[in-house]
Amino acid sequence: MSAPALSSSPVEGFTSTRFAQHLSHRAYLPAWWLEAKKAAWNQFNALPLPSRTDENWRFSDLKGLDLSGFTVPEDHSRQIPNVSSFPEAAEIVFSNRQVVARSHVSADLAAKGVIFAPLDEALRQHGDLVRTYFQKHPANLGSEKFVALNTALTVAGGFLYVPADVEVALPFVIQHTLTGHNVSVFPHTIVVLGPRAKATLVEFFVSGGSSSDAGRSLANAAPTERQFVSGVNDLHAAEGAQLTYVGAQRWSRETLAIQVNSIAAERDARVLSLNLHLGGRQARHESHSRLLGPGADGDSEFDQRPLQTHVSPRTTSNLPYKNALLDTAKTIFSGLIIVEPDAQKTDAYQKNRNLMLSDTAEAHSLPGLEIQANDVKCSHGSTSARIDGEQEFYLKARGINPTEARRLLVSAFFEEVLNKLENEDLHAALTGLIAAQFKK
Amino acid sequence: MPSLEIRDLFVALAATPDKPIVKGLNLTIRTGEVHAIMGPNGTGKSTLSKAIAGHPDYVITSGDVILDGKSILEMEPDERARAGLFLAFQYPSEIPGVSIANFVRAAVQARLAEGEELDATAYYKRLYAKMDLLKIDRKFTSRSVNEGFSGGEKKRCEILQMAMLEPTFSLMDETDSGLDIDALRIVAEGVNLMRGDKLGVLLITHYQRLLDYIVPDFVHVMYDGRIVKSGDKSLALELEAKGYDWVKQELAASSAAVANA
Fold this sequence. Notes:
A: alpha/beta, 2 domains, twelve-stranded mixed β-sheet, six-stranded mixed β-sheet, 9 helices, about 20% helix, B: alpha/beta, 12 strands, about 40% helix, about 30% strand
């Protein structure tokens, strides 16, 4: 097999020399993987950045996509605080690109065939399994250039495999902490649930401060380093499987974060994907999922592009998409439901509800439907509202101070989505994260 | 003895401050006393209670409300509540997503000193005891505040909050509205159990019925934004027998007498 020539990158931080070095350090990985990386590298360089005429990027801040200055961090591990606070099945903690802490699955789960490993290890030990599911269903929602860059440069990532009929009650946890100015990271997580398997994966994405900030957790004030994250997830639920995915990000106020999730649910599978966006300067989320996106402080832009595609008959999807906007936060919701010709009896729902907590926040909502079957139930709705004055007064009339009253009402707003989580500890942890936004 | 003094109070809607609804009302309530304000619809009874609690839709254009010697007009609604005022709402808000347990807990926590942690075990013990007393199913603790509650359940939930927060003065706005006779009895029993020298109550009601169960020390008739007649509990019975037209006629007669004098 002859390796294709590597094209040169116009982005100074991501030079072909740097990529060649990246590849040479990973010569021990399967050949198909290295080839995929090379192809992705060339695709990244060939694809243009999104432009004004690109419908997929309507209303987005395109100037924010400037990648100049970003570099791939050198490998070195740091002391970073662990942000999860609930019982777990197993955990992998990344500092920038490196695993700095890890717990393994129990002997019992391992004996049942459960695999939970950093991507690098999974590629070496379960290469064929990874290959089957890696980018099996690309999302293709406008960020192909960034997905290509992720494939080319991904190091930090996790692989979770739960075989048929195995149920794991406690969540698996992957934490990514990005530290340093102008650093970039490319997490790629793959989750595969076999038929009737059941599992929960929680991913935390955090900007860390300097190492002297050892006490920093997800709940503390966000640091301000300029950072770039291009993350990709492949989530697969086979027949009758039940997958709960939670992504919670609290990137720095100067982070450009693009996350592209692809979710494939087979017959009777149930996938709950819940995404909590608390930070970032510009956070774009593309997915086929059910998700949750509260706004955050500062000039954050939350750019949400969910797509639900119904391919087979009698499928159901429901996407409640909720944003709470503080200060000058801006959200863009551009959702689309596609019902393919064979997908009769589809029941699809997309809803975008925005809770406006300030006069300067801005919410754009562009829900859409593309229906090619004739016997379907599809609807979408979009509302923007302020906090209900009567509810707020009711709380205050009980002596609850205005900050706490707001916190309770915002938590209540998200509860419709959060209460779908079966694990109470996880529910409490996420509620706590939302609450922390109000402790200022 | 703590007191709540309403002095020559004028209240209007914030949107129309030049159109007073409450027009020069005077009333002093001391702890240990139960006062009932009766009056026809639209006379300003609910406006009075909401304005005292600090509802943002209303503005106090003149006069004062003094709690324990201090004016509360500059205080925020939550500060007024923590100072000892309680408003039992005529139409309590439904708050989907906030459980009763968390709601009451936040209110109890708000009364603790900064840094002081709530004793969760003691809190639940107390909450359950009060719920049992008010015949509220303990399962309600995890239900969202007032969401899908019947009229009686909402009002019992108001009394539960009052029992948990132990105010010095409670303004009870049409607590009897929407209650069947059984619910009315339970609510009244709850209030009667709290009666004592630590609590002053202002009962706002349209009907005499509630006063059969919560017997007031004083009854006031409110008409056109003012108290026009005060007496003991027998006034309520007289009002029930003669109707509000009787008050209107008396009032017309007395103002005619003033005009003729």
